[in-house]
Amino acid sequence: xxxxxxxxxxxxxxxxxxxxxxxxxxxxxxxxxxxxxxxxxxxxxxxxxxxxxxxxxxxxxxxxxxxxxxxxxxxxxxxxxxxxxxxxxxxxxxxxxxxxxxxxxxxxxxxxxxxxxxxxxxxxxxxxxxxxxxxxxxxxxxxxxxxxxxxxxxxxxxxxxxxxxxxxxxxxxxxxxxxxxxxxxxxxxxxxxxxxxxxxxxxxxxxxxxxxxxxxxxxxxxxxxxxxxxxxxxxxxxxxxxxxxxxxxxxxxxxxxxxxxxxxxxxxxxxxxxxxxxxxxxxxxxxxxxxxxxxxxxxxxxxxxxxxxxxxxxxxxxxxxxxxxxxxxxxxxxxxxxxxxxxxxxxxxxxxxxxxxxxxxxxxxxxxxxxxxxxxxxxxxxxxxxxxxxxxxxxxxxxxxxxxxxxxxxxxxxxxxxxxxxxxxxxxxxxxxxxxxxxxxxxxxxxxxxxxxxxxxxxxxxxxxxxxxxxxxxxxxxxxxxxxxxxxxxxxxxxxxxxxxxxxxxxxxxxxxxxxxxxxxxxxxxxxxxxxxxxxxxxxxxxxxxxxxxxxxxxxxxxxxxxxxxxxxxxxxxxxxxxxxxxxxxxxxxxxxxxxxxxxxxxxxxxxxxxxxxxxxxxxxxxxxxxxxxxxxxxxxxxxxxxxxxxxxxxxxxxxxxxxxxxxxxxxxxxxxxxxxxxxxxxxxxxxxxxxxxxxxxxxxxxxxxxxxxxxxxxxxxxxxxxxxxxxxxxxxxxxxxxxxxxxxxxxxxxxxxxxxxxxxxxxxxxxxxxxxxxxxxxxxxxxxxxxxxxxxxxxxxxxxxxxxxxxxxxxxxxxxxxxxxxxxx
Amino acid sequence: xxxxxxxxxxxxxxxxxxxxxxxxxxxxxxxxxxxxxxxxxxxxxxxxxxxxxxxxxxxxxxxxxxxxxxxxxxxxxxxxxxxxxxxxxxxxxxxxxxxxxxxxxxxxxxxxxxxxxxxxxxxxxxxxxxxxxxxxxxxxxxxxxxxxxxxxxxx
Lengths: 826, 155
Hints:
The structure holds two protein chains of two kinds. Chain A is α+β, with helices and mostly antiparallel strands. Chain A has three domains: 2-32 and 484-630, Aldehyde oxidase/xanthine dehydrogenase, molybdopterin binding domain (Aldehyde Oxidoreductase, domain 4); 35-143 and 204-250 and 257-290, Aldehyde oxidase/xanthine dehydrogenase, a/b hammerhead (Aldehyde Oxidoreductase, domain 3, Alpha-Beta Complex); 294-468 and 634-799, Aldehyde Oxidoreductase, domain 4 (2-Layer Sandwich). Chain A is 29% helix and 23% strand. Chain A has a seven-stranded mixed β-sheet with strand order 3-5-1-12-9-10-11. In chain A, a hairpin with a 2-residue loop joins strand 22 and strand 23. By secondary structure, chain B is of the alpha+beta class. Chain B is 32% helix and 16% strand. Chain B has five helices and five strands. In chain B, a hairpin with a 2-residue loop joins strand 1 (2-8) and strand 2 (11-17). In chain B, helix 2 packs across helix 5. The longest helix of chain B has 14 residues, at 102-115. Classes of the chains: A alpha+beta, B alpha+beta. Chains A and B meet through helix 1 and helix 19 of A and helix 1, helix 2, helix 3, helix 4 and helix 5 of B.
């Protein structure tokens, strides 16, 4: 046997290598498999008629004329689906008495947001389907819209649903708030606005469904093929074993494709009705209206501190806009934030309240960060305010409060146990890369010279909880599923490896990173590994990709499955080498006899011998394949220090990001190239929230940012170059990894806004509502310069109904234990 | 129906199309060039960018009948035996994540480098402002175009 003379060199470790991506080969050549590329014989196209009203009763629908249009095969209204369409699922009832209204995929008697589907046409091509929508006759009786959640809970407010506009009231408290606030030398009170955002993944949603002999195959541009399969089975009653869901190439998600959509359900029902394959692909305008939105909170905050700046207590009171219905995890998004407001800071007491409020707008749900960016924004803005109050540098006030590196593991006031971290190290590195002290000097010079372009420095020392999540914790939060992940290793007879993962990548690079992990564990070449995912028939178990969970949970499942492969291979190797299994020693890729390393067999040879199965030891099954399911013990807690320098033109309000430094501690790194890319993209989305993006509804509830001409996704010319750095505090899991998908987005929004406000402090400005457009910045400066700040602020307010109210620069009352003014009217 | 003759990635096609048919739908649904995706309906995102007689156009903003008699190059026609230097540079600089904007980004970049073979980073950013990417934050796209320029892509 050749293996006994061949000494295998252990390959260089893959972990930490900047491997170029396997995924790219098809993506850079156009050999892609987007859902909209799929064409099946006889396939029909669906077009939806959507409500033009934010709130109305449907008094009549007549689709019959549409059926006579050229190329039309069928036309349906909600009544046609009433018996079978069920209700779109909400998997996160955050309180026992939460109101979860029925959410029919196609409206039957009432519409509650502009864009809600009310009828559809199925035709031979997409043009014919769209044309025939005009022949549908539908009458509405308009009802009053509900557009401002700050007044939606008033008795006098119109109601979105019969049960009222309050979905839930979630409370969480730790520590003695009365003691914390009683006689506190410093009490800050602020209201911040988290504007509504549109996720806008570049690939619009698309669904194809075929039904052959009662077996359904659904292709969808989704992040969650596994969850979707379960939910579709529950909603439609189709037996789960007859339902296969495939997520082919998926062009970005950012949470927006973590959903069970009306169009997916209806595609299944229409395919079942017609017995023919159907496709629906949204236009961007349709998507902006009807893909769930993100954020949209009013945050009322109170913070009590000692005279030296030590935080005593934090009180958070949120109003969160649910939109018209609760979708998959709508109510849970702000609740995830509940555990993140205390962030990296020590405090004695904390209370959190969130009321989920209905409005006649598109439902909100997960968007990159999902609850954690909102929380991080609030606390990082507050820390700056506290620093100003005490005349301390924003880094100094943070350091006085953050958890010291020697204090880990540390259980926060919110009850999370942070396993590792080193905020001092990340901050020191960021300061150095940024040139913090020199920029502070320049800022001072510009202030003294009255430079019309003022310099501001913004700090964000963020953390996040990710690696969602330990199943028992999710259970305690009333989430409807677990947080485990699945992996399978298939050892092929030729020594190649198929890795099956329950993660469902849509741009993250799992095919590359998972190959690196398995290559190290099994000692097989990176090139010999193929990663399979996103098809419930190939990968039958999984929890999919969101919440920066894939590496910290799915990566660990891979390691555990590899452990099993290695152990199973050991028994077969013992037979091949005619020694006791106990006498074998594993080095990656090879079992060899202890003390006689020349005598061994490689994993490839074992795989071939297993395939032949001619001479396996008694009782050993002819397989070294293995599955593993990993349920994490804890979340992971990436952190970092982000520093942003903005130049604010006080004459035009234009904000330019001059430099941005992101130092992230995400534990061990599998592929630094992919990590850097994730950080860059995350930063862009967080900066976009700070400066550019906002979903705007008019007074009638029409979305006025329904196209990419109106909703400003930044282009290359709008964004800066980034400087990235890393520190490394390994997580407690075996790989030491934490997750990086959301870090940049969570960290960067407050860094940018803090920088803008820092530039404008001499004007007495202490807040600019996002997005900090030139107009808003200019108006804030004008209002501040006007002398009569109150009336100027009022004028400003009248023009900007969505602006934060009441954050005057004198919102701090040292020594009184009370604030002089309150925040918004929530 | 109108009759058109279009050369797509070096192959001649004669087809009858509705006068209102968009070039991108013609490419995707009649010719089968699904490598060119559609990202919006207002010609803001640039995902559908192709070359028409060597110049970049957003194929959602061109009618198929307007392409009559022209030569169209899509992402699928860029590799000529070996990867195009821009394709290679996008791979090597990790200038794509989900990859949906990538065909349009590469086609727009090729036109940019044709007009300006040695752009500064600012010129690259401004030259690509008609193409949106939601994943990369653009940093590595700029690096990739710079790298391709240094490799002499326009020659």
